[in-house]
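User: Here's a chain of 341 residues. Predict its fold as tokens.
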Amino acid sequence: MADTMKAVWWTEPKKIELLHDVPIPEVQPGMAKIKIAYSALCATDFHQVSMGVMNATWTQPRPMGHEGCGVIVELGPDTENSGLKVGDKVAICGGNRCGVCPACKRGLPMCMSGMRGFGGVFAEYTVSGIGGLHKIPDDADIRPYAITEPLGCILRCFDLSPIQNGDSVLVSGVGAIGSIMLDMVIKSGAVKVTVSDPIPEKRALALAMGAQYVIDPVNEDLVARGREITDGAGFNKIYEVSGVPVTVQPCLDLVARAGTATFFAVFPPKFEHPINLHTLYLKEAGIRFVFTHWNTAPRAVDLIPRLQTDKIIGKEYDLADWDEAAAMFEKSIYPKILLKC
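Assistant: Prediction complete.
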């Protein structure tokens, strides 16, 4: 094995680039080294650099990418009871739990103080704490499992804001993660499933996946059209997945009585929005936010074969073609874009 590899790094403020001579990380106790097969691009990867979301205290240089899958090539000490072995296919989901802080003891490892984040899957190799690795069936095509981590986040969303059979649902944005959200909504027993997205290709994708209605929020009145679809009642469940500030008020206006507007996307850290609490009070409406939860990953692994990954995964690039992949992601035409590492 060579001593260096290709990897995408955040090298300077506002700059992400492909490096060709990064030292291959060494495995430590309780960790495994993974040869990455595929990784998936996420808006958060770019927004942590451009807007300081999520990791505003992190500094560069640092490796990029947090959604991926691969094959274990080395196990460190203290992994003997993990149930994993060299050669196993794994999805990479979640940070390295400490297991002893108050948050971990309450079952909220993603909230632990001094959380050690995870990342570095836009690379040929990475290392991960054994607790963040989840075995993929030996006979499975590994490629779709690159999106296990975002699916796990969506499962956390549905744990917090579940859909009842017959609930009307609006999905705002069907981009990199919104397409996965839509697929899960379609499988949930929802009705009047509606998608709002300004990109024609994404609205067409939503209909192909099973959405019943699509709205162009640029050329149509989103609130008026949403009320028309729901006979004036509004939507029982709204999932805002775009992170675009102008979507916030329409989502609040369209939430039904006793409904819930869930803001799943990561909004700009300095964005603030005034809320008329009296209006929401009269509707007994709820507002929900979602971060993540690392314990949803096993369910996500089991669900991957049921997803419409042929539609969700829209484009694939070799790691060496990072610049082209990043430029295509910024155009926001496709849902998930993969890097073949």
